[in-house]
From TrEMBL:
It comes from the Eukaryota. GO terms for molecular function: macrophage colony-stimulating factor receptor binding. GO terms for cellular component: extracellular space. The keyword Amino-acid biosynthesis does not apply. InterPro entries: IL-34, IL-34_sf. This is Interleukin-34-like. It comes from Sinocyclocheilus anshuiensis. Keywords: Signal. The keyword Oxidoreductase does not apply. GO terms for biological process: positive regulation of cell population proliferation; positive regulation of macrophage differentiation; positive regulation of monocyte differentiation. It holds the Pfam family IL34.
């Protein structure tokens, strides 16, 4: 008897969670994002993005594919007429991060350990997160993007644009990691923690330079 009630309850709870009420909980974006974070931890970044490459190895990326905390603070500076939303910055982060992973994959031989033990998996984690993110934050087709953001998208997607910069593979993921903590801080800060992940100087001081 008790057991069947238990099943019934479980069925009901399962049903309730299919309803939009459950769907709109923004915090469940944090689950896949925390998995991404674990894969981006410092020891993994070092091992797969630095030690597995020749010393001082760099790859070529477009200028706009470098997305750092400084870019965020610059873009976020108040402009009353065309405010940049967190969403705009998160969209950029998602795109640039995935593009960075692709840039590194493109130079790796088929059997390179960084490819099959690390980046392929990371790419999938990003894809899972992106699917959920787009589902939870449907695009507002009416909204016009601020010009600063539009210009970046324009250059990011312009196939004939030639502005190349050399970066180390590790720096791509270092930036991806830091900007993630800043742009999704609800997922990562603890209640008693007023540490500002968006503050460039905090990272410089190296207290939590992970
Ligand atoms: C990073 O993740 C790996 C694998 O999950 C784990 O073994 C390692 O201890 C972690 N390192 C840090 C610095 O958290
Ligand atoms: C790597 O770069 C650093 C800093 O630019 C330089 O001092 C060092 O000599 C380089 N190492 C090699 C092996 O090229
Ligand atoms: C970030 O800033 C650098 C210059 O510091 C710039 O070259 C790059 O295009 C910026 N990235 C984005 C995505 O705006
Ligand atoms: C952007 O600026 C607003 C207002 O100054 C601030 O509340 C917000 O935390 C900033 N966002 C980021 C990602 O730096």
């Amino acid at each position: 008897m008790v057991q069947s009630e238990c099943w019934l309850l479980r069925g009901l709870l399962g049903f309730i969670c299919l309803l939009p009420m459950c769907m709109s909980a923004a915090t469940d974006l944090c689950v896949p994002l925390k998995t991404v974070r674990e894969s981006l931890n410092l020891s993994l970044r070092r091992r797969f993005m630095k030690m597995n490459f020749p010393i001082n190895y760099t790859i070529q990326v477009h200028y706009e594919e470098v997305f750092r905390l400084r870019n965020i603070s610059r873009l976020n500076m108040s402009n009353e007429e065309e405010p940049v939303l967190k969403r705009d910055l998160q969209d950029l982060w998602l795109w640039v991060s995935q593009r960075g992973i692709k840039r590194v994959l493109r130079v790796l031989p088929e059997r390179h350990p960084t490819r099959h033990k690390y980046l392929s998996n990371l790419e999938n984690l990003f894809r899972d997160f992106e699917a959920l993110y787009n589902q939870r934050n449907p695009k507002d087709e009416e909204r016009e993007l601020p010009e600063r953001i539009l210009n970046i998208w324009y250059r990011l997607t312009d196939p004939s644009y030639e502005g190349w910069k050399s970066v180390t593979p590790k720096s791509i993921l270092d930036n991806c990691y830091r900007t993630m903590l800043c742009l999704f801080k609800e997922c990562f800060s603890k209640e008693d923690d007023n540490y500002d992940y968006c503050e460039v100087l905090n990272w410089r001081k190296g207290k939590k330079t992970t």
